[in-house]
Every structure is written in structure tokens, then in C-alpha cells.
Amino acid sequence: MMLELKNVHARYGAIQALRGIDLRVRQGEIVTLIGANGAGKSTLMTSIFGAPRISAGQILFRGQDISRVPSHKVSSLGIALSPEGRRIFPRMTVIENLRLGATFVDPKHWSSDLERVFALFPVLGERHQQRAGTMSGGEQQMLAIGRAMVSRPKLLMLDEPSLGLAPIYIRKIFQIISELNRTDGMTVLLVEQNAHHALRLAHQAYVLQHGEIVLSGTGRELLNSAQVKAAYLAGGQAEVA
User: Do 38 and 104 fall into the same domain?
Assistant: First the structure.
């Protein structure tokens, strides 16, 4: 098992953000987590890095309990997060942003890893000396994913990679996620509001509601679920019962 959350609870002060989360990510899978704004999706992702530190339960990565591992050491275990909102360094160039992602990786991998990123995202190669903040939102998202990739993760976590992007970039981002999984065997945990695209990619999927998992199954099962269609795929606002 690549990642396992067992009865995980997390809080922000008096606010209970996660309630008894049980989630599994097997090696080589794309696992998708969908839910409305405020459901706890991003909290689940960042809790793996200890921000917030979980108040109960266990987080296991490749069988190792990382629930109390210091945040700065989690990435060295082989987990990379491309966060919501991209959070690239706008005043730095594309290549400088990418070099930061490879800070803790053996330098001998830099050339081949950079070549792979530029093959997936040719625009980054074309603009490698451009300041990242001058690029479009879609290009910045590509940079955020590329920065995570050069850390050579065993588990790539993507938080809302399509948020605020034009349709042409949304299609490109999901194509890249599929290729990383299919060609590179990358294990991916994907948080996404674009439920239709996310569930089509997913081997397994979970629905998060008010900090709790309320539904799970294969991506296809949830894509065809009447409850999920009503809540997330047909413009509805209903909660999953």
C-alpha cells in the first residue's frame, strides 16, 4: 500500500476539519477525492505533511507511520504536493522554480528529469528564462506540476490542478496526469472539483462531505452514481445522502 489513512481526525482549533477518514492509495493508482468547497479536501492533503497535525488516527506511507514525522522531512520520503493556487515563485524564472523542486534530489538526475518535464510541457522549455509570474495561469500550473515532478516522488499529490483554467489547459492537465500514470507508473492522489474529468481518470475515488468520507468506489462506479451525478455532475447542489 502506497498511502493509507486510518481513522484520521484533524482540527483547526475548535473546528473539526476531518472526521474519521479512512482512505487507501495503492501503488500505480490514480485516486480522486471530490467534494464541495469547505469539505476538507485540501486539509486532508496538507495533513499528510503535518499541517495541520492530525489529532487522532494514523497516516501510513509505504507501511511507515508518518503521523508525527516533521513536515520538512515528509517530502524526502517520496511525497510531492502541487498545492491549490499553484504557489510558484513569480519573480523567479521557470528554471529557478524547477531547481527548487530538485533541491533534495541527487544532482545526477537533474538533466534527465528536466528533459522529461520539458517533453511533457514544451512551453516550459521554450520559456525557461521567463519570470514565472508573467506566464498564464495554465502555464503556471504546468510549472507547479513540473516542480513537483523533479523531486522524483513516489506519490504525486495534486490539489485542484484545473482550478481557474481555460478549457484548453484543463484538457492538457488531465492528459498529462493520465500519461504520468500510464507511462511512468506514477501514483497520484488528486483533489479536484471538476468531478467529471477526475472520475474518468480515477481507479478509485472518494466523496468528502463535511470532513467525512460519505461514498467510495471505483471512478466508473462514482461517475455512474445517481447521488454523485445529482451533487457534482449535473450542476446540482444536493449533498450525497
Answer: no
